[in-house]
Amino acid sequence: MTSYVYKFADGNKDLKDLLGGKGANLAEMTNLGLPVPPGFTITTEACKAYLAEGHEPESLAAEVTEHLAEVERTMGRRLGDAGDPLLLSVRSGAKFSMPGMMDTVLNIGLNDDTVRGLAAQSSDERFAMDSYRRLLQMFGATVMGVDAEEFHSKLDARKAAKGTTADTDLDVDDLTALVATYKQVIAEQTGREFPQDAREQLDLAVRAVFESWNGDRAVLYRRQERIPQDLGTAVNVQVMVFGNQGMTSGSGVGFTRDPASGERGVYGDYLQNAQGEDVVAGIRNTVSLHDLADLDKASYDELLGIMDKLERHYRDMCDIEFTIERGKLWMLQTRVGKRTAEAAFRIAVHMVDDGLISKDEAVLRVSGGQLAQLMFPRFDERAERSLLATGMNASPGAAVGKVVFDSDTAVEWADRGEDVILVRKETNPDDLKGMVVARGILTSRGGKTSHAAVVARGMGRTCVCGAEALDVDVKARQFRVRDGGIVHEGDLISIDGTTGEVFAGAVPVSSSLVVRHFEGEEVHEDLVDAVARVMAYADTIRRLHVRANADTPEDAARARRFGAQGIGLCRTEHMFLGERRELVEHLIVAEDEAAQEAALAALLPLQRQDFVEILEAMDGLPVTIRLIDPPLHEFLPDYTELSVKVAIEDVRGKHDKRQLRLLEAVKRLHEQNPMLGLRGVRLGIVIPGLFLMQARAILEAAAIRIKAGGDAWPEIMIPLVASKRELDLVRNEVLGVAQEVQEREGVSIPFRIGTMIELPRAAMTAGQIAESAEFFSFGTNDLTQMTWGFSRDDVEASFFTNYLDNNIFQVSPFESLDTEGVGALVRKAVIDGRATRPDLHLGVCGEHGGDPDSIHFFHDAGLDYVSCSPFRVPVARLEAARATLGGGYAAST
Ligand code: PEP
Ligand code: MG
Predict the structure, then answer these.
(1) 845 is annotated as an active-site residue
(2) pLDDT tens across 385-400, in order?
(3) Å from CA of 845 to ligand 2 middle
(4) Which residue has the higher pLDDT, 421 or 426?
(5) Beta strand pairing status for 545-549 and 865-868?
(6) Which of 4, 531, 609, 823 could disulfide-link to 819, CB 3.0 to 4.6 Å?
(7) 3-state secondary structure of 163
(8) Three-class DSSP category at 771
(9) How confident is the model over 636-670, as pLDDT tens digits?
(10) Is 571 in the pocket of ligand 1 (CB under 6 A)?
(11) pLDDT digit string, tens, across residues 129-183
(12) For atom 9 of ligand 1, which residue has the closest CA?
């Protein structure tokens, strides 16, 4: 029979699928002999069964009873016992951490009778009442669905009546009154009484946690973080320990190293006389973990010992949650901690130096996404700026935007293309929508472990938190700074998540130090050194080569500085824009062969010079040049505009013959579906001169470079091929030109001719096509468009949101390769192509070449290289190494 419940001693850290991250790590800590309050975990399988069937699996209640009895025996107390009640916490815990996205209920087991028992046992009536009002508040909101604001406003009113802002100033009478008020709120809002039966409380809380898996904010968070929607959450039921039993008690959170910078040394927040939720919710301002040394030296020393043990055991930076109950330390959670991109790189190399991990592991501890974040711009150091306030540097980066005070406004303004900074007193999980669309997040309360900070770091969003000098007034849509200045909604501000500074207006941004390092500048900074070291490890590990998509000598040169090993796609169509557009027009409207040849002859030297420069920038490395691909009408004036112009001139009695011929041509070339029309290789067959002029320009450019002592490796690539015959027609002519150029110039050019695979038919007949191609480059943009039948220029803006909502895919297939469909075509073409030609060279040059997940797929599929935009080259180098090591895309954060 399936076990739906595991006691902590029966689990371990590797059972995250079944026990969730929190449950698996509680089990691990229990087995390490650390002080963990006893408890058990209800598995993700139970949650999945509940969500599928709409009710708990039949055996669950009996299993819970059995495990509860064991906990009761260990503790010598019983749930619901009026004399000496056992109290429980019920917490969610999925495989992947989803901070604050799902439910937690503390103090389960309190009711009108047991609260008296708790008061007597603890000799602390205030503490007992405070715990009861907390239960009513959490249970009322999360289990019974009462708007949490209802409770907050009653609590605030009580505090105001007392003339205080601290909940610790409320006495027994205040809390007793609050308990009565809260019960009334629950009854009024739900039409039901708060359940007095302790077991019923437990069962309802467990059910609420199951259901919170499908709550809006959890679904949104998972989509954002690309976490599968069908994993379910586990539920941890654990004996309560109390941080709110006076000043010798408290709760804290911590990290074994600084999660923002990655520097060595523990980091954390502690709050006296408080339960855990108070710390992360930023309700009162915390003290530094180090201050605990003065408050309770014994607990502090014990805690540091445990943190060291955990870091050595997990061989990674860990975060922890703990509670001290009247001087006794209890560990409530640990896991491998979330960290900023900057911290990830520093920690990885520090741990190599400390002998904790290998270089391979260091590469797996960072991700391409994190590297991309470090390449974001920073505020220009020399720019003038006016400081409004300084808060905590919770998540790095430089963000500029208009101030908004709530999530809905953030979404509305961002939708119309505005950059916004979400400003809140503190954030809660309902703010997630706004945090997703905002450039940055600024709060006036809470530390680096507050909700805002944790979520922002996870998303790579710039965040400054706890800027206490700001007085945020959401109702008045403004915040006041200490010197009396007021910033209104819509005003521009700039926040620096690396220093914690907040500036008025828009501060100009400059490129990152990491980019400057990649650009070849000597930058002496420990973060840059860490990145350089990890990149050096990555380059020795990876099998895939990385090339760049570059159409200009400048881009080619930059790509080379960023580590590109050649050009995988030089699109030539961009070379026919601007002044050269007219020459293309001449070619298209040419009345006879002589006129056509004259137009081509005018284009040839220009193209040749383009290629000389690019081959020079990539000297010694392969350069794949694609012959012209888009439909020719793209180079001609718009049909309607031109018709109107000609008609007006007609009325005026003017007849410009050239205009008329142009209009004719535009009409002739007009297509209903240009993406499926006369483009790519089809152009090369219908108007052969254009392709041959380009091929000649490439080969002559290579000859020039070789004769000048250069090392040119041109690869001529034919786009949009669907059949071997199409390729043959063009290839034979190009071979003729090649022979002629080589003979005439007296050089041997090491060129290759290959094709793009970007039509499903090409992939299906790759075995035949490979007879005539020395290389394939997968054009996954078109291959995705043609396989799904999605117009790549339209669908993302029109209906993809709906498709994402309906879980048809979790991420746009234009962004990350659809491995099942488009990927299957790629795999088939690789296998069939190599069967025909074992040394067939294989790469990808669609946008997916720079996408981390897709790079892992291309590695597995056996490609030789990926090609992506110059800025993605370092990211691709790193991900190619991680793919070689078999690491999944998501880094350990
Ligand atoms: C592709 O289709 O993937 C490709 C690289 O070509 P383009 O984007 O220019 O159509
Ligand atoms: Mg294409």
Answers:
(1) yes
(2) 999 999 988 887 899 9
(3) 9
(4) 421
(5) parallel
(6) 823
(7) coil
(8) coil
(9) 888 888 888 888 888 888 777 878 888 888 888 88
(10) yes
(11) 999 999 999 999 999 999 989 999 999 999 999 888 888 889 999 999 999 999 9
(12) 571
Measure 815 CA to ligand 2 centroid, in angstroms.
Answer: 15
Tell me the mean pLDDT in the region 461-475. 90
Predicted confidence band at 484 (pLDDT cuts at 50, 70, 90)?
confident
The pair of structure tokens assigned to 87 is 């109290």
Which ligand has its closest atom nearest to the C-alpha of 778?
1
Q: Does residue 59 have a pLDDT over 60?
A: yes
Does residue 155 contact residue 167 with C-beta atoms inside 8 Å? yes
Residue 469 alpha carbon to ligand 1 centre in Å: 51
Ligand 1 neighbourhood includes 569 CB (under 6 angstroms): yes
What's the mean pLDDT in 697-712? 98
Cβ burial, residue 586 (10 Å; 0-12/13-18/19+) = middle
Choice among 350, 451, 517, 848 that is catalytic: 451
Is the CB–ligand 1 distance for residue 259 below 6 Å?
no
| 635 CA → ligand 2 middle, Å | 17
- Which pLDDT band holds residue 890 (cuts at 50, 70, 90)? very low
Cβ(779) – ligand 1 distance below 6 Å: yes
Give the CA-trace dihedral at 718, 722, 727, 730, to 10 degrees: -70
Q: Return the pLDDT at 92.
A: 93
**Residues paired with residue 343 on neighbouring β-strands, in sequence order:** none
- Which residue, judged by its Cα, is nearest atom 4 of ligand 1? 779
Q: How far apart are CA 364 and CA 537, in angstroms?
A: 11
List Cα–Cα distances, 137 to 56, 173, 189, 203, in angstroms. Answer: 25, 17, 13, 17
Residue 782 Cβ inside 6 Å of ligand 1? The answer reads yes
User: Hey, what are 842's tokens?
Assistant: 């294989």
Helix (H) or strand (E) holding 330: strand 328-336
Per-residue pLDDT of 541-586, as tens digits, reads 999 999 999 988 998 999 999 999 999 999 998 788 777 888 888 8
549, 551, 567, 571, best to mutate for ligand 1 pocket (most atoms within 8 Å of CB): 571
Report pLDDT for 648: 85
The yes-or-no answer on residue 318 being catalytic is no
Q: Which long-range contacts (CB under 8 A, 24 or more apart) does 50-55 make?
A: 50/207, 50/210, 51/210, 51/211, 51/213, 51/214, 51/232
CA dist 827 and 817 (Å) reads 12
**pLDDT score, position 28:** 97
CB atoms within 10 A of CB 53: 10
Output 239 or 465, whichever has higher pLDDT.
Answer: 239
Give CA–CA dist 190/225, Å, rounded.
34
Q: CB atoms < 10 A from the CB of 658, how many?
A: 10
Q: CA angle 827-829-832, nearest 5°?
A: 105
pLDDT digit string, tens, across residues 712-754:
999 999 999 999 999 999 999 999 999 999 999 999 999 999 9
Task: Read off the pLDDT of residues 88-134 as tens digits, 9 standing for 90 and up.
Answer: 999 999 998 887 777 889 999 999 999 999 999 999 999 999 999 99
DSSP letters spanning 376-405: S-EE-TTS--EEEEE-EEEE-SEEEEEEE-
Q: Is 629 in the pocket of ligand 1 (CB under 6 A)?
A: yes
- Please report which ligand is nearest the Cα atom of 721: 2
CA dist 630 and 646 (Å) reads: 26
- With beta carbons less than 8 A apart as the criterion, state whether 705 and 615 touch: yes
Q: How many CB atoms lie within 10 A of CB 665?
A: 19
pLDDT reported for residue 892: 33
User: Looking at 47, 463, 465, 845, which residue is catalytic?
Assistant: 845
Please report the pLDDT score of residue 664 as a whole number: 87
Residue 645 Cβ < 6 Å to ligand 1: no
Hey, is 375 helix, strand or coil?
A: coil
Is residue 63 lining ligand 1, measured as CB closer than 6 Å? Answer: no
The alpha carbon of 826 and the centre of ligand 1 are apart by a number of angstroms equal to 15
Q: Which of 845, 831, 772 is nearest to 548 (CA)?
A: 845
Compute the distance between CA of residue 272 and CA of residue 287 in angstroms, rounded to an integer: 9
Closest ligand to C-alpha of residue 847 is 1
